[in-house]
Specification:
With 218 residues, the chain is an alpha+beta fold. The protein is 22% helix and 28% strand. The chain has 2 domains: 35 residues, no CATH class; 121 residues, Immunoglobulin-like, CATH 2.60.40. The strands form 2 sheets. Strands 1, 2, 3, 5 and 8 form a 5-stranded antiparallel sheet that branches. It is rod-shaped, with a radius of gyration of 48 Å. The N and C termini lie far apart (118 Å).
Length: 218
Amino acid sequence: MAALACTGEPISWLRLELFAQGATDAAAGSHVESCPACKQCLAEIRGDVVALPPLVIPAKRARIRWWMFAVPALAAAAIALVVLRPREAPERFSNVASIKGGGDLVLGLVRERGGAIRDDVTTFLAGDRWKLEVTCDPGASAWIDLAVVEDGATTADHPLAPARVACGNKVTVPGAFTLTGSKPDRVCVRVAADLAPPRALPAPGQRDVACITVTPER
């Protein structure tokens, strides 16, 4: 049989397949009605019992990687850790010490310079004389040992002998001392209730130690 020629603009086979499967295409329908060649092609398509079903292209799905879940989970865990375990502030020296069984002791300093006495300063010059002043619960008593540590030093000086004092308000500890050098000095006392405390380098956070830092004047 001779092949029929299209009477107008040929319609693609794919377009005819879609039209045969029910796609709305008024132009294709009108053309087929007037074109024997395309009508024959359409009949062959409709009669092709082994024709493959139309190709359905699935929507593109984003690839899901394990770290897309892991990163938010790790971030949430980190936030929870910060909320549940806030960063602890570093321990510092305090001017308050605890006397075992006897409450707290507050350390103060008194400076004598050229006959002028002050208890509200923390700077020194060569020749200044210093005394310890403590406040603790009246009726109690405490052993006190002085340690002076220059900034950066790994050992302490003990210019006074350990002393036992009766507690009260701004009690002056016997003895006086001087400060020298060009670096700040940490003036500390270690306290105890019954016996003179052992001598050791003061460290931050020790409950039986109270300290005040005194800086040199320029």
